[in-house]
Amino acid sequence: MTEFLRELRKLEPEQHYYTASEFHVTILTLFTATVNPGTFLAKKRNYLYVVDAALRKVRPIRIEFEGVTASPGALMIQGFFEDEALNDLRDSLRNQLRMRGLGEGLDQRYRLKAAHMTVARFRAPLGEGGRFAACLEEARQRPFGATTVKSLSLVKNDWYMSRRVTETLKRYRLTQSA
User: Is residue 178 in some structural domain?
Assistant: First the structure.
C-alpha cells in the first residue's frame, strides 16, 4: 500500500497521504466531526462504558483489502469481510449508545456498512488529474492484502488521524471465541 501511495504522491504531491502508522479502519464514529467536541468529550466515561460492554465478546475480524474508491474529498482502499461480525458489532454499539442517550451524533454524515481504509485526502485541485485517474483506474481491482483485526482502539482524533493529535482512550483485545 505504501508503494501505491508513493506512486500517487509523485503525481499529486499537494495532497495529504496517510503514513503507515495512520492507517486505520473505522468501526464506528461515536459522534460526528465537530469543531467543538467538548459536549461529547464530557461524557467520555459513558462512552467508555458502552464500548466496554459492546466489545466484551467480539471475536477477531478478518478484512481483505482490494481496489480503490475515490470520493470528492478522499481516496480509500476497499475492505471486504467474510461474515457479518463487523456490522453486528456496529449495530450493537449503535443500540447501546442510543439506549444510554448517547446516539445524538451517530451516523450523522453517513451510516458505516462497509470497511475501508482512507489513505489520502484531497486538499488541493489535482494538477495531473488525467494521469491520477488512470492510476486509480489501474488500481480498481488491485489486491492490497488482508488483516485479522485482533484489537480495537477507542481514540480521540482529528480529520487526518494525525499521530501528533490522536489520543488512545482505551485499547480492546478481541477474544478468540464469542
Answer: no
Per-residue model confidence as pLDDT tens digits over 62-100 = 999 999 999 999 999 999 988 888 999 999 998 999 898
Domain span at 25: 2-173
Say what the pTM is. Answer: 0.83
Residue 149 lies in a domain: yes
Rg, the chain, Cα only: 17
The total number of structural domains in the chain stands at 1
Q: Are 74 and 52 in contact (CB under 8 A)?
A: no
CATH number at residue 167: 3.90.1140.10
- The grid coordinates listed for 55 are 466489545
Quick: pLDDT tens for 17-54. 999 988 999 888 877 666 676 777 778 899 899 999 98
For the segment 107-159, what is each residue's pLDDT rounded down to a tens digit?
666 677 889 999 999 999 999 899 999 999 999 999 999 999 999 988 876 66
